[in-house]
Amino acid sequence: DDPQFGEPTADKIPGALWIPESGYISDPKLSTHNVMVAAQAKGAAFLYNTEVTGILKKQG
Hints:
With 60 residues, the protein is mainly alpha-helical. The chain has a domain at 25-60. It is built from 1 helix and no strands. The radius of gyration is 19 Å and the shape is elongated. 0% of the residues are buried.
């Protein structure tokens, strides 16, 4: 954790962007795990310590 997270980094802010649908991920590890589980439910396979030699792309 960074104790200065969220603190101002400059005297002036040149602009801003607000996206109401966006959010803050408080637990990136859990979020990544949830994406993995959702992908597996759709048929994705995760192969660790394996060289990628190609990627197949299907419609749908």
